[in-house]
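Much of what follows relies on a compact textual record of a protein's fold. An example makes this concrete, so a full record is given next.
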Amino acid sequence: MSDTPGTSSDPPDEENSSSNAVLPSDLLADLPVEKRAELIQLVSQVEVYGSFSGPLPPPEVLNLYDSEARQAILSGFVANGNHRRTSESRSQLFFFIRDILALLAAFVLALMIINGSIESIQQGQSIEGLLGIGGAVAVIAGAFLRDRKRRRDRKQRNSLSPEPPEGESDPS
């Protein structure tokens, strides 16, 4: 009936006094013999449940599995770790390329604004042209200063706690 060590599927015998030690003898005296064996069987069976969370069970639980199942669990754990590291390196590459493309787009946009401002100055609209050049320079300087502040804040945050994944919970 059960493969668990220490349990038996055979009903206890009348002669087996170790099973009767669980129940008081006066309780058993009033029961028929068939019911005594059933009651002793029910009372003497104990099931223990446990749980764990995480990628691997604790070693004492892992050792309860047969060798094939243990190997499958461990190889799944290793494969999951490899997949996670590969995904992280790909996402880091993606974020790096994204940042470079954003910088290039901002630089091209700033050059176009400056070029338009210079053309405005050449056509005699010096105030609009100077405002365009000043605005482009202010935007570039603001982006540079903002990036420096964000890096400084990230370094301070790293000294206190681990950095959140790139792209998550970054308000800037």
Q: What stands out?
A: The chain has two domains: 1-49, 60-160.
